[in-house]
Amino acid sequence: MSNTLFESLAIHAGQDKPGNTTTTKLAKLSVAALLAGASALWAEDIPVVNIGGTKISLYGFLQANAVYEDGANGNVNWSEKVPSKAEDGEGRFAFNVNQTRIGFNLSGPSGEAAEVSGKFESDFANDNERRSNGVNNLRIRQSYGQVKFKNLGLTILFGQTADLIGPLGAPTINQGGLKHQGSIGTRRPQLRLTQAIGPVEIAVAATDDRANQPVLPGFQGSLKGKVPAAWAGEKQNIELTLSGHYASEESAADTKEAKDAKKEKDWGTPSSWSGVASLSLPVISIINLSGELFYGQNLNRYSNGSIGLSGTATGGKADEGIQSLGGWGAASIKLPAGFSIAGGLGVEAIDENREKKSTAETKNPNQNLVIFTNLKYNVAETAFIGFEYAHLQTDYAKFSTGEKVDSGKLNRFELAFNYAFK
Predict the structure, then answer these.
(1) Quick check: bond before 109 cis, omega within 30?
(2) Spatial CB neighbours of 118, under 8 Å, sequence gap ≥ 6
(3) What is the three-class DSSP state of 308?
(4) Contact predicate 164/182, CB 8 Å
(5) CA–CA gap between residue 10 and residue 28 (Å, rounded)
(6) Do 356 and 192 touch, CB atoms closer than 8 A?
(7) Residue 79 in contact with residue 69, Cβ under 8 Å?
(8) Which of 214, 202, 293 lies closest to 247, judged by CA?
(9) What is the three-class DSSP state of 22?
(10) Which stretch of DSSP H or E encloses residue 256?
(11) How far is CA 245 from CA 211, 292, 309, in A?
């Protein structure tokens, strides 16, 4: 920066008292300090601010998605389940920037025995409703702090972050991931303990149940192991995770009468529970296979599992909920010149003995399927353009009379641009 510009900045900084040479000198020193600090920041690969010994780094991305679906979709930005006879409707186009994300990583100050870190992350995807294009929909994705005791291998986490169940993400471009379609991992507030024992991690967490006035928190646990996949590359690992959760979903009573009613015979509410197996398998350096399989009950608060259904199965006892089997599998391949391709399938099916029959007012799904494939091109190290095609189909439970309900089918074409900063 030239001396002339430097002096100009300093003089303007001291204009509150024209002609005051002392103020001008102080202003020059202030600007010099500011520029020196800025130069230090620009020299970093990652923008870092140090406040009281805590290092804060900024990350995130700008993202735009253009989506065309060839039938009725309930006026949403992207379909997760398909309305009955959706193919009879007209196609529709949506353009949104709701996935734009910003976050901060925090670290330190740390002691000799413990490391302190944290994360805050937000985006604008709190609502899939068509008219919610980044308006009044700022949401907190993650907000937590954690303490790692280095000599013990123990980490304690407080705040909101990813569930222990269903930890993998399918390689889809679609903004909904595979909600309603075989993936049940999401995020929620929790108190988590993680113990590392060599290549194995054991974790347990007490979590927000998200039920109405829950008496107890939910509980999650996972066992994760890593095995080096040397044939696929120096840093490649096979990762296998077994996880599960339980939440009673019992609502707290507001009155003495309500408390007494809970003691009556046959009173109850269905609990929520799951068992999940997750696998990431590098085949060679450019090919990776991944997937998850789960079985559970009343999973609607877990990334809209149970295809969004909750409550008691038709004809069941008060505590007999909606049970389902689901999962997803996918392959991703890195190609030359910055290209990559991926494809996969996600599905969830309700147990016919634990489903909700359709009614005149509500058509209840009993199977949801998506098949997807996409192509991505990295135009730069931090930016990509992607295109994805997906076929979706939702089947519905019969009416109690035995009459069938028509399925819904959609084809989705999606174009995405992502520009990351980190």
Answers:
(1) yes
(2) 105, 106, 107, 144, 145, 146, 159
(3) helix
(4) no
(5) 5
(6) no
(7) yes
(8) 214
(9) helix
(10) helix 256-261
(11) 14, 15, 18
pLDDT tens for 379-417 read 999 999 999 999 999 999 999 888 999 999 999 999 999
How many helical (H) and strand (E) elements, i.e. helices and strands, does the chain have?
3, 18
Instruction: State how far the Cα of 74 lies from the Cα of 365, in Å rounded to an integer.
Output: 15
| Residue 112, amino acid | E
> 328-370 pLDDT, tens per residue?
999 999 999 999 999 999 999 999 889 999 988 899 999 999 9
Q: Give dist(CA 162, CA 394) in Å, integer.
A: 27
Return the ∠ at Cα 270 (arms to 267 and 274), rounded to 5°. Answer: 155
Residue 237: strand, helix, or coil: strand
Quick one: tokens of 375? Answer: 């192509």
Residue 240 pairs in a beta bridge with: 225, 279
Q: What is d(CA 231, CA 176) in angstroms, rounded to the nearest whole number?
A: 33
Reply yes or no on whether the pLDDT at 39 is more than 50.
Answer: no
Provide the 10 A C-beta neighbour count for residue 370. Answer: 29
Question: Which helix (H) or strand (E) is 39 found in, with range?
Answer: helix 21-43
Is residue 111 exposed (0-12), middle (13-18) or buried (19+ Cβ within 10 Å)? Answer: exposed
Q: What is the DSSP letter of 111?
A: -
